[in-house]
Amino acid sequence: MLSGVILAGGKNSRMNGQNKAFLVLDHMTFIDRQIREMNKICSEIVIVAMDPAPYLRTLDRGIRIITDYFPEKGPLGGMFSGLTLSFHSNVWVVGCDMPFISAEAAELMLSCKKDAIDAVIPWIGNQVYPLHGIYDKSCAKPIRELLKNDEVSFSAMLKKLLWCELPEALFKEKEIDPRFVTAINTPEDYEQAVSFYESLQMNYRLGL
């Protein structure tokens, strides 16, 4: 059983304050795309939001919406809340600014998570991507200690966890496009994502 957690508590300052969760790609918001993808393998979906109101107005009531226990602590604060309140021991964590998340990639990572491992995290292009990782619910405890000491970086978290990386080559071997880790931080990123998706659609129509 797998829980899906979407972190949606950022200030979106580099997007001029526009909520990235509600950016649109192919007539569907990022958050709706993520929920659709997570529903393929997750038995529950949790959204961690600074302001729940926009989500309560637009999303199905079956989606759980919670707020940060440690406000103003960035993604790590959101992860703590999501892990703590998830029903299942295995949790797939993503950011709301990731329009190409992959259930196939998450399922592959879950299959590689052994009992002694706290997390399985993608390693794409010689870089670790903590968001889109599969975490054990027990990771909430060391994250809590970090937050209490005002340590909010992913690098600090990774030093406290027993985690394994899943390399890009393994995803490609399974024909999973590694761009599932793509995050949209700026208007320029958004334009590139739209262009990328349109090129995919064109190739599909042309049978390429």
Automatic annotation (TrEMBL):
Major enzyme class:
transferase
- The yes or no answer to whether the keyword Iron is present is no
**Protein's cellular compartments:** Cytoplasm
Q: Where is the MobA-like NTP transferase domain?
A: 4-150
Tell me which domain of life the UniProt entry assigns to the organism this sequence originates from: Bacteria
Its EC number(s): 2.7.7.77
Q: Please indicate if the UniProt record lists Transmembrane helix as a keyword.
A: no
Name its co-factor(s). Answer: Mg(2+)
The reaction(s) catalysed by this protein are: Mo-molybdopterin + GTP + H(+) = Mo-molybdopterin guanine dinucleotide + diphosphate
Which residues are involved in binding Mg(2+)? Answer: D97
- Recorded GO MF terms: molybdenum cofactor guanylyltransferase activity
Which positions carry the signal peptide feature in this UniProt record?
Answer: none
Q: Which keywords fit this entry according to its UniProt record?
A: Cytoplasm, GTP-binding, Magnesium, Metal-binding, Molybdenum cofactor biosynthesis, Nucleotide-binding, Nucleotidyltransferase, Transferase
Q: Where on this chain does GTP bind?
A: L7, A8, G9, K20, D68, D97
Q: What does this protein do?
A: Transfers a GMP moiety from GTP to Mo-molybdopterin (Mo-MPT) cofactor (Moco or molybdenum cofactor) to form Mo-molybdopterin guanine dinucleotide (Mo-MGD) cofactor.
Q: What family does the database annotate?
A: Belongs to the MobA family.
Note on domains (UniProt): The N-terminal domain determines nucleotide recognition and specific binding, while the C-terminal domain determines the specific binding to the target protein.
- Can you say what this protein is called? Probable molybdenum cofactor guanylyltransferase
- Origin species: Paenibacillus allorhizosphaerae
Lineage start: Bacteria, Bacillati, Bacillota, Bacilli, Bacillales
